[in-house]
Amino acid sequence: MDEEVKQLNKLRNNSRDKKWIKSQQNWTWIITISWMLIANLWPPFGLYGFVCMLTPIIIALSGRGKMSCARICPRGSFIGKFTKAFSGNRVMPSWMHSKRFKFILWAIMMGTFIGLMFWAVPKGVYTLGKTILYFMEAATLIAFITGIIFKPRSWCIICPMGFSAGNIRDIIIKKNR
């Protein structure tokens, strides 16, 4: 068992050796605010929400694991910047760190998103853009509340996209073993 853990850690370190971009967290929060403002004024712009959803997946598939979370995530940057002053700086309960909890949250959010997509796509680009915007605004509100109750970027621990990227990373590591 110990040998397996050592080998897994070695493979994880090898994936970290791939070129990482410099952190952009000091300014990417602007993307979150700008996107929400523009999409509220012009709903089709809400479709760009897919970029934020797909970026961590594409980066994870490239073998760079959760680099998107650590370096560029606009929502993570936003909640990190704007919850510092209000945060209770409490540690999240250990059960929220469990893979089971993260999977349940992922399943609820992905199920909701898929259901909303089936509803919105036939209604056209305006409804689809608004639907993506409202879904991501709700997720950002949950992330913001999580950052106030716990530590500022606590959402990043349970984020469904980060969970997906981490699982992709682990699958790639196991495949390369």
pLDDT averaged residue by residue:
90
> In the residues, how many domains can be counted?
1
List unreliable stretches of 5+ residues.
none
What is the helical fraction, as a range of percent?
Answer: over 70%
| Fraction in beta strands | under 5%
Rg, Cα atoms, Å? 17 Å
Shape: globular
Secondary-structure element string:
HHHHHHHHH
Q: Could you give the distance between the termini?
A: 15 Å
Our count of helices gives: 9
Oligomer: single chain
Structural class: mainly alpha
Protein name: 4Fe-4S ferredoxin-type domain-containing protein
Domain 4Fe-4S ferredoxin-type: 46-90, 141-170
Pfam families: Fer4_5 (PF12801)
InterPro entries: 4Fe4S_Fe-S-bd
Summary, kept brief:
The chain is mostly helical and 177 residues long. The protein is built from 9 helices and no strands. The protein is 71% helix and 0% strand.
Architecture overview:
The protein has one domain. It is an all-alpha fold. The protein contains nine helices and no strands. The model has no long low-confidence stretch (mean pLDDT 90). The longest helix is centred in the last third of the chain and has 25 residues, at 125-149. This is 4Fe-4S ferredoxin-type domain-containing protein.
List keywords for this structure.
177 residues; mainly alpha; 71% helix; 0% strand
Secondary structure topology:
Blueprint: H1 2-16, H2 29-41, H3 49-64, H4 67-71, H5 74-83, H6 99-120, H7 125-149, H8 155-158, H9 160-175
